[in-house]
C-alpha cells in the first residue's frame, strides 16, 4: 500500500488514502475498490508543463535532422510546453477525437506534482519541493515537426487526462527507475522506463526552476517515450506507471462527447463516504 | 470603465480609476504610488502571438506566417504595473514587446469572426519581453525565452470592451528612459483580433480571463539594467516597468 491523494467528484478537498498501485485499487473505509469504480476528478490544481524530447530514444529518433534546418543544432536547454486548463481530463473521462482526424498520439508521462513554491532549487534539494507523482496522458494530434510550438496539436479540449491519484513522494523510492507502459484495448503497445530520461527528475526541476517558478499544485511532465502509439475512436487507452497507478480513458468522436455524463463503469459518487 | 487589481493595506482589492488615483472596492481613495499593482485580471490560459506584424517579421528576417504563430504562457511570468523585470547578467540581447492584450469574457468555441467581439470583456497592455540569447529551434520561441519569471508585465488597467470603439486602430508606443523606440498601430496586425478568436476557438474552448497577447510591431532594441521601459497603447493604458539585474535576486 502507498499513501496517495485522490480527488473524488463532489468532494472539494483532496482526500488522503491508501492505494495499491499494482491492482490499481484504493482503500476507502475498509473496503478496497478499483479506481475505475470511483468517480474521480483530475487531482490537478495548478499549471501543467510538459517536456519535449527528454527520453534518450526520442531525441535519438530525430537522428541527424537535429543538425539540419530548421533545427540547426541539438537542443541545449529543456524544451517545454503548457497543457492549458481546457485540456484537463480525469480517469475514465472521454478523450474527444477532433473532427477530420483518425488517430491521436498517446503520450505516457510521469507527472511530478509540486508541493511548495520552487524557485531556483538545486538538484540536491529538488525532491523537497515534490508532493508526489501522478500518471498523465499527454495526448497530441500527431505532428512531425517540432520547430514551432504545437498549441494546435497539444491543447485540444480533454487532451490531458491525469490520475487516478497523486502518490506521495515518499512512497516512490526512485522516480528515475519506473516502468512506463501503454495498453490500447488491453494490448501492450509501448514499454519504456524513466531510467532513459536525459534529464532525470531532480535535474529537470533544477533546470526549469532556474528561470521559472513552479507553485504548489503545478505539474511538470518528465517527457514522452519514443514511438508513442496511436489510438483511434472507440479505443480504450491505459497508461501504467510502475509504483504510481493506471490511468484509463476511451477515445470518442468529439460530437459524441456528452458533458457531465456519468462514467458508465462507476457505481456513483463516493461523497457518502465523507458526508 | 477602467478596473485594476491592487494590493493595499495587506489585502487584494479591485479598484477603478478615480480622479488620477484609484477608488478601491471598499470605497477608500488611494494614490497610484500607494498601491502594489497586480495584473488587472488573474490570467487563465494566455496565448501570445509571434510575428503578427509584418514589419516586425521582416525585422527578424522571417516571412509573414500563413497561420498564426501561437505560444502559451504560464502564470509565473506575469507581474503588474510599476514592477521589476530581471535581466540576467549573462544576457546580450533582451528586448521589450509592446502588445495589446485581449481579455476573454465568456466561453468561446467555434466562434466565427463576425461574432468574435461578443466574447471579449476588455483590453489591457502587455510587455512581452524576450531574451534572444536563449532562442533554440524547438517549439520556438520556447519558455526559456518567453515564460521567465517577471518577464511579462501587464496592466495597469483593464478597459471595458464597450469603451474601445475600434481596437484594430490603436497606436502602440514604447519609450525607454523617455526616448521613443517603438511605434506602430494595431491596424497592421497580420491576423486581426476576430481572426485570432476564430482560429483559437476552432480547435479549443476559450474561457473567461483567457488572454490573447496580439503581437508587437517593429522596433526591438536591447535594454539594460536600470532602464525604465514604458509600453503604451492609445486609450488602453501606459505600463511602466524597470529592468533590474541579478543582484536584486541574490540572497
From TrEMBL, chain A:
Which SUPFAM superfamilies does this chain map to? FAH
- The Fumarylacetoacetase-like C-terminal domain is annotated at 47-252
Q: Which Gene3D superfamilies match?
A: Fumarylacetoacetase-like, C-terminal domain (3.90.850.10)
Keyword set for this entry? Answer: Isomerase, Lyase, Metal-binding
User: Which InterPro entries does this one have?
Assistant: Fumarylacetoacetase-like_C, Fumarylacetoacetase_C_sf, HPA_isomer/decarb_N
Keyword Metal-binding in the entry? The reply is yes
Which is one GO molecular function term here?
A: metal ion binding
EC numbers: 4.1.1.68, 5.3.3.-
Q: Does the keyword Oxidoreductase apply?
A: no
Q: Which Pfam families does the UniProt entry name for this protein?
A: FAA_hydrolase
| Name of protein | 5-oxopent-3-ene-1,2,5-tricarboxylate decarboxylase/2-hydroxyhepta-2,4-diene-1,7-dioate isomerase
Q: Give the organism the record lists.
A: Sporosarcina limicola
The uppermost taxa in this organism's lineage are:
Bacteria, Bacillati, Bacillota, Bacilli, Bacillales
TrEMBL record, chain B:
Keyword annotations from UniProtKB, A to Z:
Isomerase, Lyase, Metal-binding
GO annotation, biological process: 4-hydroxyphenylacetate catabolic process
**Which parts of the sequence belong to the Fumarylacetoacetase-like C-terminal domain?**
45-244
One Pfam family, short name please? FAA_hydrolase
Q: Which GO terms describe its molecular function?
A: 5-carboxymethyl-2-hydroxymuconate delta-isomerase activity; 5-oxopent-3-ene-1,2,5-tricarboxylate decarboxylase activity; metal ion binding
As recorded in UniProt, its EC number(s) are 4.1.1.68, 5.3.3.-
Q: Which SUPFAM superfamilies does the UniProt record give?
A: FAH (SSF56529)
Give the protein name, as stated in the record.
5-oxopent-3-ene-1,2,5-tricarboxylate decarboxylase/2-hydroxyhepta-2,4-diene-1,7-dioate isomerase
Amino acid at each position: 500500500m502507498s499513501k496517495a491523494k485522490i480527488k473524488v467528484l463532489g468532494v472539494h478537498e483532496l482526500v488522503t488514502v491508501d492505494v495499491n498501485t499494482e491492482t490499481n485499487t484504493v482503500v476507502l473505509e475498509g473496503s478496497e475498490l478499483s479506481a475505475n469504480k470511483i468517480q474521480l476528478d483530475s487531482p490537478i490544481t495548478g499549471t501543467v508543463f510538459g517536456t519535449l524530447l527528454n527520453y534518450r530514444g526520442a531525441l535519438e529518433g530525430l537522428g541527424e535532422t537535429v543538425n539540419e534546418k530548421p533545427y540547426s543544432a541539438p537542443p541545449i536547454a529543456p524544451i517545454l510546453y503548457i497543457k492549458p486548463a481546457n485540456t484537463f481530463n480525469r480517469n475514465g473521462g472521454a478523450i474527444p477525437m477532433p473532427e477530420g482526424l483518425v488517430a491521436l498520439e498517446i503520450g505516457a508521462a510521469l507527472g511530478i506534482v509540486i508541493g511548495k513554491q520552487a524557485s531556483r532549487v538545486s538538484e540536491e534539494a529538488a525532491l523537497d519541493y515534490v508532493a508526489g507523482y501522478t500518471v498523465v496522458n499527454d495526448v497530441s494530434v500527431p505532428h512531425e515537426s517540432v520547430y514551432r510550438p504545437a498549441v494546435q496539436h497539444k491543447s485540444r479540449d480533454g487532451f490531458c487526462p491525469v490520475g487516478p491519484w497523486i502518490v506521495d513522494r515518499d512512497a516512490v523510492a526512485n522516480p528515475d527507475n519506473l516502468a512506463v507502459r501503454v495498453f490500447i484495448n488491453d494490448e501492450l503497445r509501448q514499454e519504456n522506463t524513466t531510467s532513459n530520461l536525459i534529464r532525470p527528475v531532480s535535474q529537470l526541476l533544477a533546470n526549469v526552476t532556474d528561470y521559472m517558478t513552479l507553485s504548489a499544485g503545478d505539474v511538470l511532465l518528465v517527457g514522452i517515450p519514443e514511438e508513442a502509439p496511436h489510438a483511434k475512436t472507440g479505443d480504450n487507452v491505459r497508461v501504467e506507471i510502475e509504483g504510481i497507478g493506471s490511468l484509463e480513458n476511451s477515445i470518442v468522436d468529439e460530437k459524441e462527447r456528452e458533458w457531465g455524463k456519468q462514467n458508465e463503469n462507476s457505481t456513483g459518487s463516493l461523497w457518502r463516504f465523507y458526508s | 470603465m477602467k478596473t485594476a487589481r491592487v494590493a493595499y493595506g495587506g489585502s487584494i482589492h479591485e479598484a477603478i480609476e478615480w480622479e488620477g488615483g484609484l477608488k478601491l472596492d471598499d470605497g477608500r481613495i488611494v494614490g497610484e504610488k500607494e498601491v502594489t499593482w497586480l495584473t488587472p485580471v488573474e490570467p487563465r490560459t494566455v496565448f501570445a502571438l509571434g510575428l503578427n506584424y509584418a514589419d516586425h517579421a521582416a525585422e527578424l528576417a522571417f516571412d509573414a506566417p500563413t497561420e498564426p504563430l501561437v505560444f502559451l504562457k504560464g502564470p509565473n511570468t506575469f507581474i503588474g504595473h510599476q514592477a521589476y523585470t530581471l535581466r540576467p547578467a549573462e544576457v546580450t540581447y533582451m528586448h521589450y514587446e509592446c502588445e495589446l492584450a485581449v481579455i476573454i469574457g465568456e466561453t468561446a468555441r467555434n466562434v466565427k469572426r463576425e461574432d468574435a467581439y461578443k466574447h471579449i470583456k476588455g483590453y489591457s497592455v502587455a510587455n512581452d519581453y524576450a531574451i534572444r540569447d536563449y532562442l533554440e529551434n524547438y517549439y520556438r520561441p520556447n519558455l526559456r525565452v518567453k515564460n521567465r519569471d517577471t518577464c511579462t508585465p501587464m496592466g495597469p488597467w483593464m478597459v471595458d470592451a464597450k469603451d474601445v470603439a475600434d481596437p484594430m486602430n490603436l497606436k502602440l508606443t514604447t519609450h525607454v528612459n523617455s526616448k521613443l523606440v517603438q511605434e506602430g498601430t494595431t491596424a497592421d496586425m497580420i491576423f486581426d483580433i476576430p481572426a485570432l478568436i476564430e482560429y483559437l476557438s476552432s480547435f479549443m474552448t476559450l474561457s473567461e480571463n483567457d488572454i490573447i497577447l496580439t503581437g508587437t510591431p517593429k522596433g526591438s532594441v536591447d535594454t539594460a539594467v536600470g532602464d525604465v521601459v514604458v509600453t503604451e497603447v492609445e486609450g488602453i493604458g501606459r505600463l511602466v516597468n524597470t529592468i533590474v539585474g541579478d543582484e536584486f535576486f541574490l540572497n
